[in-house]
Amino acid sequence: MSEAVLAAQALSINAGELSSDLLRALERHDILLLGAEQRPDGQDCEAEPRQQALMAHVRAWGGAVWRMRAGNPVVDDGQFGAIKDQFFLTSPSGHQDAVRWFDLPSLLVDKLAGKRVLADLTSLSGSSLLQLHSAAVQKRTFALGYLYLTPVHYPQTADPEGSSPVVTRTIKQPHGYRSFGQEHGEAGRRRHFIILGFDRHRPNKFIEHYQWPDDELQLLICRPAYVEGGEEQAQLSVGAVLYKRLEARGQVHQVNPMRVMGTPDDPGVADTLLKLSQGIDFIDVVPLGPKPTLLATAVFWHSLPEAQRERTRLLYDFPVVRQARSDGVQQAWLFEGVV
Fold first, then answer.
1. How far is CA 123 from CA 3, 166, 317, in A?
2. Are 17 and 56 in contact (CB under 8 A)?
3. Which of 53-57, 59-63, 71-75, 112-116 has the lowest average pLDDT?
4. DSSP code at position 4
5. By the 8 A CB rule, do 200 and 239 touch?
6. Residues 162-174: pLDDT tens digits?
7. First to last CA, the chain
8. Buried b (16+ CB within 10 A) or exposed e, 125-158
């Protein structure tokens, strides 16, 4: 695992505006790759002011802005059906290529080879992020870094029943991250790692779907400053009773979401997963936390030897894209040299 991705570099923000060190970071790259996701009704999500500011600066100094999105699910009688596995890449001129997931690496090589690409974690969907990273690792023909803009405020709203406003799709292994080593019912030690986010009941869908026993669960929790009451929100996402029970057993672990690999005093996601999975035969990883934890999970998975990847499932539920639930820009974080 590259030393370059141990932790993100914090870039200053001047009253929510693009600062000089953030602008310099942008100018070290040839291409800014933004998410261009659509809502289930097929309408484009409007670019946020922070995205518009990034695009304006990149274009001003002659850089190129590309956009990428994953295909939307089929909707039938209000229920989400099969997930289309097409991906769309749009050039600065507006030309759009649509390919299946297994052709995405070749398309990215054709369009981005030899370039320094900075991908915007904030706007890319989870599906796009996972496929982009997998393609870059496979081909290694363009330099890939990531930019993450944390908001000033991330309001969490729940209805009176306490359910989450997020809508998710079918639980499955993302393309490019598939493992078939657990499908034969082999005996062995198992652990199921859930990186907690802030959407209530979302982790429980995985626990109930696979009927995971408590003694095999491991929770990773982070506390980003921009989520009001973040630690409490993360606890409530899985249920306070289950959380407290696992915490008492030593099955809850604090991680720094801005570190892929951390230190004993400031652990990151990937090193925590590596440490806790030692001597375990079969592993599940469910990344539900902020986008950098999804990136760290992808880096972790690709760092494993092939034999171990065959026994490690990455499981995801592909939340439905909608307009942003956050506002403003508090901090910019730069992950360079990732691929």
1. 26, 16, 18
2. no
3. 71-75
4. G
5. no
6. 445 567 778 889 8
7. 10
8. bbbbbbbbbbbbbbeebbbbbbbbbbbeebebee
